[in-house]
Write a sequence for this structure.
């Protein structure tokens, strides 16, 4: 068990799934909202290319009328987009100052007008097209990634290829200027679900001891022991038998011969019609 207070996200895995946290739908977000959050990048290359920070919206099939709100990183800049049902409004920040360890984002929207402030950059504003003024979203609030295979099921105009890579913390929201900022979730700060999320700066490898020269490998919240030749098992505590497929070098029994371990080496039990030390002869 890992106590997660500052979630770390590992991006998109080889199967196309992202690490994410899903919070309950943010209520009363229709006409006004403000978000504050901080993040720390896992690296200065892939973490900045095309990465989703958060998303909430109607899960549609790419129709222009799908309302959504989302934030992400693209080509080293913060991208903030929303669609109220009559076209997408987007603000793109200046390139992030990569000498900063932690980045701070403050964004909001009132009716059609949205604004974004990143670190010490100037405030940027945008007005959404069309006449609609309300954001109608019913999905959960997704942080760091998306439940389904990203980005195919996200509404058109909000597709980021990868999940976030790094740590996101101090996420707060309010839906009225008279409100206090609160953490998302019901109860406050508690996600409904998630996948492959770790604790920032705290590797689960610190909780696991691989034996016999094995090395702990971490990926998101998944850990395993990479064992040296001759060892196997969750913690590299089991020896690999000379007859097992992972033994190096492999046994030499041919033509369906069965490898049988001996105190010193092995022998081959040959099927009918074969003979020889390794059943190699007909």
């Amino acid at each position: 068990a890992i106590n997660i207070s500052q979630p770390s996200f590992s991006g998109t895995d080889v199967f196309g799934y992202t690490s994410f946290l899903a919070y309950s739908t943010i209520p009363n977000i229709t006409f006004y909202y403000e978000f504050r959050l901080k993040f720390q990048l896992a690296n200065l290359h892939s973490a900045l290319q095309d990465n989703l920070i958060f998303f909430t919206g109607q899960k549609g099939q790419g129709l222009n009328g799908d309302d959504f709100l989302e934030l992400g990183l693209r080509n080293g800049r913060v991208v903030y987009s929303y669609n109220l049902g009559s076209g997408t409004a987007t603000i793109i920040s200046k390139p992030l100052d990569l000498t900063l360890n932690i980045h701070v984002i403050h964004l909001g929207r009132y009716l059609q007008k949205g604004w974004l402030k990143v670190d010490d950059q100037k405030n940027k504003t945008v007005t959404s097209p069309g006449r609609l003024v309300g954001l109608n979203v019913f999905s959960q609030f997704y942080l760091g990634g998306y439940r389904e295979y990203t980005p195919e099921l996200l509404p058109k105009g909000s597709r980021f290829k990868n999940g976030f890579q790094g740590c996101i913390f101090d996420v707060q929201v309010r839906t009225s200027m008279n409100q206090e900022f609160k953490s998302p979730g019901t109860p406050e700060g508690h996600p409904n679900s998630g996948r492959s999320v770790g604790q920032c700066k705290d590797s689960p490898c610190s909780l696991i001891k691989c034996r016999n020269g094995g090395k702990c490998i971490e990926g998101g919240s998944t850990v395993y022991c990479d064992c040296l030749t001759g060892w196997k098992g969750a913690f590299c505590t089991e020896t690999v038998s000379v007859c097992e497929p992972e033994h190096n070098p492999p046994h030499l029994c041919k033509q369906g011969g069965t490898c049988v371990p001996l105190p010193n080496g092995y022998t081959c039990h040959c099927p009918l019609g074969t003979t020889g030390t390794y059943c190699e002869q007909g």
User: Anything to note?
Assistant: The two ends are 57 Å apart (CA to CA). Residues 20 and 147 are 7 Å apart (CA to CA). The mean pLDDT is 88.
